[in-house]
Amino acid sequence: MYGCEAWTISKQTQKKLEATEMWFLRRMLRISWTAKKTNDTVIEEAHTTRLLISKIRKRQATFFGHVMRREKLENLVTTGMLEGKRSKGKQREKLIEGLADWLKAGKSLEAIEATKDRKKWRTMIANAVKQGT
Description:
Blueprint (H helix, E strand, L loop, with lengths): L10 H18 L10 H8 L4 H20 L2 H7 L15 H9 L4 H7 L3 H14 L2
Protein name: Endonuclease-reverse transcriptase
GO molecular function, one term: endonuclease activity
Keywords: Endonuclease, Hydrolase, Nuclease
């Protein structure tokens, strides 16, 4: 989990993390891969619901809020508002886009504006964690 605040989590990466988490749960509960148990059954046995992704996203959101309130060079780098040309091909997913999607903030600009008000930002994070998305 060290340094997860700076990760960019795409849909493919999220699926891999969830699969790895499920593999860990099955190993810890000593459920054989030949046993015909669904993932929902395994989660019920473990009494957890997608803790890994939720924990990573929460740490990313708190770190992002901290960086955005400082309004220094890190702010410019994180928002991607630097001069220069964009690279060719499919553009990489930005941290803010992933967080805005997780927080259900709509556009990334709405999430950036929400970071200015610390109380509002914390409630947005808390609501997203409660929803478990």
